[in-house]
Amino acid sequence: MIFLGWLVLAFLVPPPSVPAQSRTAEQWAVLAVEAARQGRHRRAVSLYSKAIKLKPDYLAAIYNRGLSHLALGKHRAAAKDFRQCLKLRPNWSDAKHNLYVALKRLGRAPPGLIASDPALIQARQRRIVERATQELRDDPGNVQALIRRGRALTRLGRHKWARRDFDRALSLRPKSAVALLARGEFFLRL
Questions:
Q1: What element of type H or E holds 190?
Q2: Can you give the pTM of this predicted structure?
Q3: Cβ 120 vs Cβ 93: under 8 Å
Q4: Measured distance CA(101)–CA(88) in Å, rounded
Q5: Rounded to whole angstroms, how far apart are CA atoms 78 and 2?
Q6: Using an 8 Å Cβ cutoff, are 153 and 129 in contact?
Q7: pLDDT tens for residues 126-170?
Q8: What is the Rg, in whole angstroms, of the alpha carbon atoms belonging to the chain?
Q9: Distance from first CA to last CA of the chain, Å, rounded?
Q10: For residue 179, what are the contacts with CB-CB under 8 A and spacing of at least 6?
């Protein structure tokens, strides 16, 4: 019985924390992610900065710090972080997209940037697919979400899935001119 009581007590008492001086970059990043999840972005920026100080090329920490800067409205700092990400990984579409977002909020996004960069176009289409999929989880009969997702899937080259969305939209609304037009555009792109 004493042993069992000790086990229960051991689980109730939190383990001793790692002293701040001996934390690794990864440990700081884990703390930062938790702070960001709780909406404490100022704290997250500070913790990510500690991780980056220990490991200057820590791509995930730099990117996530940029996201926290965006959440705080610090667009110039966010753009700096996303540029650093692109120096480390030049074709990262998510970093390009978020750099564009930060620059746009600063009023400094080059016109036509999204239209000229294939990686940004793909990132945008993936986001459209994600949003439409979420809308369809909430309302499976949402014809407009099916059409939006079908068009984005077509642009991404996922024709099989796009055709399913267009066919489903037409099965829900057989006389929908928008659904008919979208499916027609789909067949013209093949």
A1: none
A2: 0.57
A3: yes
A4: 19
A5: 55
A6: yes
A7: 999 999 999 999 999 999 999 899 989 988 889 899 999 989 998
A8: 23
A9: 73
A10: 143, 146, 147, 166, 169, 170, 173
